[in-house]
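Dear colleague,

As promised, here are the two records you asked about, laid out in our usual form so they can be pasted straight into your sheet.

NAME FIELD: protein one
SEQUENCE, THEN STRUCTURE:
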Amino acid sequence: MYVIAVYDCGEKRVAKMLKLMRRYLIWIQNSVFEGELSGVQLKKLKIEAAEIMNPSEDSLIIFTSRQERWLDKEVLGREKNKTDNFL
């Protein structure tokens, strides 16, 4: 499935959350990641994120879609990290 994840964490946990997200998804903007994950990978990401987060202060929002083609994406301005991988 195609995933877009957005997080907001306290200063002490930001670096850990960034490192975790980069293991699973592609960084596209500050605290925003996207990419393809299996159901198992998504479940692992949620479990690992919950271990890092303080639920009374932090948030993680996850949008899912069956495939990227079902989303319309428009970037205004400079795109920080393109997700296209042409060989």
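NAME FIELD: protein two
SEQUENCE, THEN STRUCTURE:
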Amino acid sequence: MQEFLEFVARRLVEQPDNVTVHRETKEEKIVFRLEVAEPDIGKVIGRNGRTAQALRVLLAAVAAREGKRAILEIAD
């Protein structure tokens, strides 16, 4: 899941070398914290949050295939 999220995020931003994903397990869910360069935050969030929502849906689908629950946080 983490590799998938990094792959998609790197394709969205202009500074792919600054993309990092931190994984943290809390109870029965996995929290992914996505960090990008300051100018790329808007690209990851998208207009009205649509890109971020799409990333969350994709991540949830990948997690569901593994029988887990995943949450995406975007660091600002």
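A couple of things worth noting about protein two: Helices lie at 2-12, 41-45, 50-65. The mean pLDDT is 93.

Best,
R.
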